[in-house]
Design a protein that fits this description.
The protein has 228 residues and is an alpha/beta fold. The protein is 29% helix and 29% strand. It is built from 6 helices and 11 strands. It has a 6-stranded mixed β-sheet, sandwiched between helices. It has a 5-stranded antiparallel β-sheet with strand order 2-1-4-5-6, covered by helices on one side. The radius of gyration is 17 Å and the shape is globular.
Length: 228
């Protein structure tokens, strides 16, 4: 069976007083995988490498058999061509854009008007994520749950082959995190897009993942089934 995700990525990150070497191997056969580990262990860097946003990455990344990166064979697809959706920890919605414009950004190149087909896709996402009353709203007027739905809808707009979630609940208070975790679990079950989730919260793993992989100091230590 072709793995959902097959990667071996290597890169060195330099920062003042620290040099970090990432050398991570991962093969996942499950639709929803959680990547766990301590802060600074390399979790988010793995996501950036898959998405094509990490600098000077060596190795390979394959999603459902499609090669996104293979430096041995001079293959390195640009981020926009990788068909990977990414939701950042703070959702990273464009503050000057309405909900509808944020969704359109996931489909259209900067400055390009949406085509009829793209308008249909935006309308479908607005319906699917219950955003009808919020189409013209700016992100600062949205609740935490509404921002999460917009960020997820924007990531899914181009119909990605893989969805990456970078600690999407960590910035929330406890009660909101509990409620939005349940909503996110329901949405992931509904959209049925293979997902790699970075988290440090065991409750996220239990609710959202089918398998869990631990990373420590830039290296994957092992994998196991989740209770989800």
């Amino acid at each position: 069976m072709t793995p959902v995700l097959d990667l071996h990525v290597q890169t060195t990150l330099e920062s003042p007083g620290r040099s970090f070497v990432l050398d991570a191997r991962l093969v996942s056969q499950t639709a929803r995988t959680a990547l766990i580990g301590a802060s600074g262990s390399g979790k988010s860097t793995v996501l950036m490498a898959i998405a094509g946003l990490a600098p000077q990455v060596q190795g390979h990344v394959r999603v459902a058999g499609k090669t996104l990166l293979d430096t041995a064979n001079a293959i390195d697809l640009p981020a926009r061509a990788r068909k990977v959706g990414l939701v950042f920890q703070d959702y990273a919605l464009f503050p000057h854009m309405s909900v509808e414009q944020n969704l359109a950004f996931g489909l259209c190149r900067l400055g390009k008007r949406p085509s009829d087909a793209e308008h249909e896709r935006i309308n479908a996402l607005v319906q699917q994520f219950d955003l009808q009353a919020l189409r013209g709203a700016l992100p600062r007027y949205l609740s935490g749950g509404q921002r999460q739905r917009v960020a997820l809808a924007r990531a899914l707009a181009p119909q990605p082959h893989l969805l990456l979630l970078d600690e999407p609940l960590s910035a929330l208070d406890t009660q909101l995190r509990i409620r939005l975790r349940a909503e996110l679990a329901e949405m992931l079950e509904r959209v049925q897009v293979p997902t790699l989730l970075v988290t440090h919260d065991p409750s996220d793993v239990e609710a959202l993942a089918q398998s869990v992989v631990e990373i420590d100091a830039g290296r994957v230590m092992g994998a196991q089934a989740s209770a989800a």
